[in-house]
Design goal:
Order of helices and strands: HHEEEEEEEEEHHH
Number of strands: 9
Largest sheet: 7 strands, antiparallel
Helix content: 25-40%
Strand content: 15-25%
Number of domains: 2
CATH superfamily of the largest domain: Umud Fragment, subunit A
CATH architecture of the largest domain: Ribbon
């Protein structure tokens, strides 16, 4: 039988594996956009959602019900639309913005829905005014009201988004390398 002192000095791989599994699952959820933030670009959902707000959306389980806030694509709009379900069935959903009196002209189907707002205590999960920093069109303006630095910051954010997977893999490899090196022993 091995002595306790030999077993206690043996390095454990568990402290390395558990964070890797959690990080891997988180990356899977983010990269596959199972849970994501969407930027509000118009005032049609005011006062529930204001321009420049970020709303937390999910597409793990989409069960369209009257009153749900959904994000969908339609030919009539250039960008995805975030509106509330007004009425309909699974194949004929009518939507309407909270700030608008009329029901939208389009009829959407369940497969057009890209996400449903995550609700906490009866309200969508919203981060106020952050979208202003993430939604930037360099074709229109190079100097924002925050100065030319904002343009540079938006370009950095854009590059990080496009290189996200590469940065993520490098970070995981560095994490593994540092953990193996800090123990001084191989597994």
């Amino acid at each position: 039988m091995k002595s306790y002192s030999k077993l206690s000095r043996r390095p454990s791989i568990l402290p390395v594996i558990i964070p890797l599994i959690i990080t891997g699952l988180t990356a899977y959820v983010i990269l596959n956009q199972l849970v994501f933030f969407a930027i509000i670009t118009s005032g049609s959902m005011s006062p529930t959602l204001e321009v420049k707000d970020l709303v937390l959306m999910q597409n793990l389980k989409i069960d369209p019900q009257q009153g749900d806030i959904i994000m969908f694509e339609t030919k009539e709009a250039k960008m995805p639309v975030i509106h509330r379900i007004y009425s309909g069935s699974e194949n004929e959903i009518r939507t309407k913005g909270d700030a608008v009196e009329l029901v939208d002209n389009w009829i959407i189907k369940k497969d057009q829905i890209q996400g449903e707002a995550m609700i906490f205590q009866g309200k969508p999960i919203v981060v106020k005014d952050i979208g202003e920093y993430l939604l930037f069109d360099p074709n229109n303006v190079r100097i924002t009201k925050y100065g030319s630095e904002m343009y540079r910051v938006s370009q950095i954010i854009k590059n990080i988004k496009s290189l996200g997977l590469t940065i993520f893999i490098i970070c995981i490899l560095l994490y593994i390398f540092i953990n193996f090196r800090s123990t001084g022993k191989s597994y």
